[in-house]
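Hi F.,

I've been meaning to write this up properly since the lab meeting, where we talked about keeping a consistent format for the predictions we share between groups. The idea is simple: the sequence comes first, exactly as it goes in, then the C-alpha cells exactly as they come out, then a line or two of notes. No screenshots and no reformatting. I'm using this chain as the first example so we have something concrete to point to.
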Amino acid sequence: MRHALISAISATCAIATTMALAFPASAAPDRSRSRDEGAASEYVVLYNEDVSPGRAHAAVKAAGGRIVHENTDVGVATVVSRNPDFTTDAMEHRALEGVAHNRVIGEAPKGRSSTEVETATGTGALVPGRPGKDTEPLAHLQWDMKQIHATDEGSYETEPGDRRVLVGVLDTGIDGDHPDIKANFNKELSRNFTHDIPKDVDGRELDGPCEFTSCVDPVDWDDNEHGTHVASTIAAPRNGLGISGVAPNVSLVNIRVGQDSGQFYLQPTVDGLTYAAKIGVNVVNMSYFVDPWIWSCADNPADSPADRLEQRTIIAATQRALDFAHEHGVTLVAAAGNQLVDYTKPHADNASPNFPSVPGEKPHKRTVSANCLSMPTEGEHVIPVSATGPSTRKSYYSSFGDGHVAVAAPGGDKADAPDGRPDDRRGIWAAYPEHIARLRGQLDPDGTPKVPSVVRSCKNGTCAYYQSMQGTSMAAPHAGGVAALIISRYGRPDGRGRLALDPWVVERVLRGTATATPCPSPNTVEYVWYKLTDGKWVKNTSTQTCEGRARRNGFYGEGIVDALRAVQH
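Output, unedited:
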C-alpha cells in the first residue's frame, strides 16, 4: 500500500479524547483586534457532542474562524481563520472538543485541462494464460486467489458475489473506465471528497499540477494507481480479460478520500466514512492512515501541546466516523501497516508528522507506546489485516502484533525466497491505469509494457494493464472481498434493493472461517530482502517475533482468510 501502507493495534484500546479547557465560552477573553492579522490557515474542528450546533458555530466565530465545510453527522468542520492564536482561542470554548491543522488549498497553478489528459488505447498481443479451466488469461499470475481459494473451482462456483452488495473503496480514486473494472463500477454513487493540492505550505510539490481545471478529479479517475489496484483486487469481473477479483460480481463505489500524492487528510476521511454509511455501503476498504501522524498519541512528551491536541482530535474525529459507519451496517476493513513493527510494543517513529501543517515543520524522533493509535486501523470496530507472501509466510514488511492483527491475507512479498531477491511474480497483480503507465514511460509507443512489473491483456481489440504491487494495502482488499462474499451469501434484502448483514456477523464469519496458521518455529524470524540503491543491491534485515497461539497470534491473527470456507460456512 502506500501507508499500509499502514497501521494498527488492538481494536479495543481506550481512546483518550479529554482535553483541558481553560475557560467557559462566556469567560473567553476578547482578542478580536488581532484575529485578522495573520495569514489564512485551515483547521479541522471537532464539536463537543453535548452541545448544539449553534453553540459550536458561535464558538468558532468567537475564536476568529469561518466554517467552510461541515459534517453534521459527526460534528466535524473545516474552518478558515487569520487568527494566529485560533487553536488556543478555540479551545477556550466548551462547545469545541478539538482542533487540528488542515491544509489551505489556496490558488492552484494551471495544470492540464481534461481535454489535455492523454487517453491511449493499446493494441498489443494478449498475455497468454495456462491451458485449463481458468476463464481469465492472467489467472496463472494470481497465486493470491489460489491461496484463499477464490478461483473458478473454489468460491466462484459457490458464490461469486451479488451486485446488490456495495463495496466502498476509500482510497486515491478508481479508474472507472479500466476495462477490467468498468462492468462493476457504480459511477452514480461514487464521490470525490478531495481537492488536488499542487504544493505544500513550504512550496514543495505535493499532488503536482492539477489534471483538471477545477483541481477536483472526476469520480472515475485515479492519478495515483493505489485505489485502482485495491478496487480490482476486490471485484475485477470474470470477463475473459486479465484477472478476476475476490468477489467478481459485487459493485464498487469510489469514495475518494486520498490525494494524488497518496496522503489522507482528516476531513475527507471523516466525510467519506459518513457518506458510505448514508448510502448503504456494505463494506469499506481503508488501506491508509490519517496523515500526518503515522501513530496519533494523546500525550507523547516528545510532541508539542498543539501537536498533542491535533493527534487527540484525529483519534476522536475518526472514531466518531467509524462508529457512525458501524452503526449503519458498514463492515470496516483496514490494512495493518507496513512499518515492520509490533504494534503492541513500544517502537520508534521517526517519520511523523510526514508533511508540514505549518511552514518549516519537520518529522521528529519519538518513541511510540502501545497506547498510541494509527487511525483508522486501530479504531474500534475495524478489522486490521496483515499480509502474506506466496509461501504463506507473513510478508517481511507487514506490521504485526498479538491483539492487533485480526486476520491475514495475501499482500505480496517479492522477497519471499531463500535469497531475498525481489521478483515481481511474488507481488499482487491488479488493474493499473493506462494513463499513468504512459506518463511514467513504462510502455512502448505501441503499448507493449517495457518493465517487468507491468503486463497487458487484450480481448477483441480492448487492452488493459496490470501492475505488481505489495503491501498490507493489497492484503486488506482480499479480506474486504471475502467480507463482500459473506454478505452476498448470507445477507437479506434491506428494502432498498440491496443486501444487508450486521457487521459483527460478517466479522465473526470472516474470522471463524480463516485458515488457522501458527507462528513459525522458531517464532523469531530474521527477514532478508534486497533493495537496488545507486545501482547496487543492498541487503536489508529485520528480526520479528510472533507471539500467540495457533488460532490467534501476532502474525496471522485468527488465520489466513478463505473465500471458499466463508461461503460454505
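Notes:
Residues 481 and 494 are 20 Å apart (CA to CA).
Residues 1-33, 105-132 have pLDDT under 50 and may be disordered.

If this format works for you, I'll send the rest the same way.

G.
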